[in-house]
Amino acid sequence: MPSPRVLAAAALLAVTGATLPAHAGPPVLDGKAKKALPFTFAVSDPQAHPVAETAGDVDGVDSADGTSCVKPRCFAVPFSVKPAKGVAEKTPLSIRVEWTSRTTRLWLELVDVTSASPTIRGECYSFYVTNGTAATVRVNSVKPGRKYAAWVYVQQAVAPDTVKGTVTFPATATVADNPGPSPTELFANGCNA
């Protein structure tokens, strides 16, 4: 039997005519009526999370474990995809983020968060890029009905910064070449602009 508080809340809703939101989950991109999910967040405090550029544990060096996204180190933007009639299931999806300070370094990941063990579907790491102010992830397709999130990890923020981004389905952003630590090195999976 429901508690008296639950019954009272139900009675109040009925009397006032208030309704609960029909869809309280993450936004759904369908490729027609809803093609883009813009987002903005502020990195308010200086942060430094050095990341090992080689495999193995290094004292005093963080790693992005790919299993959680916790503020202020990481910002999550959840969404799902359900293609509208006439939109192919194998339609590309892109995420692009831009920030203002050339001393800020961010990692961008597209993560499938449907299960208890998140799976990274696409990633862009900006620690090789100096003076970069954007990152893009693009995938050829995502599975309809699964839950996804854009995870933006803060690797370095010397001063407060503003991050603006957009998830688009169908994809509108394309990846750019990602220059390596030396002028002669270029990573094949470039993603920074």
Structural features, described:
The chain is mainly beta and 193 residues long. It has a single domain (23-187), classed as Sandwich (Jelly Rolls). The chain is 7% helix and 37% strand. The protein has one helix and twelve strands, in the order αββββββββββββ. The strands form three sheets. Strands 1, 3, 4, 6, 7 and 9 form a six-stranded mixed sheet that branches. β6 and β7 form a beta hairpin. The radius of gyration is 20 Å and the shape is globular.
Précis, in short:
7% of the residues lie in helices and 37% in strands.
Which features characterize this protein?
single chain; 193 residues
Our Rg estimate from Cα atoms comes to 20 Å
Proportion of beta-strand residues? 35-45%
Mean pLDDT: 75
Number of structural units classed as domains: 1
User: Which class of secondary structure composition applies to the elements?
Assistant: mainly beta
The strand count comes to 12
CATH level-1 class = Mainly Beta
Secondary structure layout plus pairing:
Layout: H1 4-16, E1 28-29, E2 36-43, E3 47-48, E4 74-81, E5 93-99, E6 105-112, E7 119-125, E8 134-139, E9 147-157, E10 161-168, E11 178-179, E12 186-187
Parallel strand pairs: 1-4
Antiparallel strand pairs: 2-10, 3-9, 4-9, 5-8, 5-10, 6-7, 6-9, 11-12
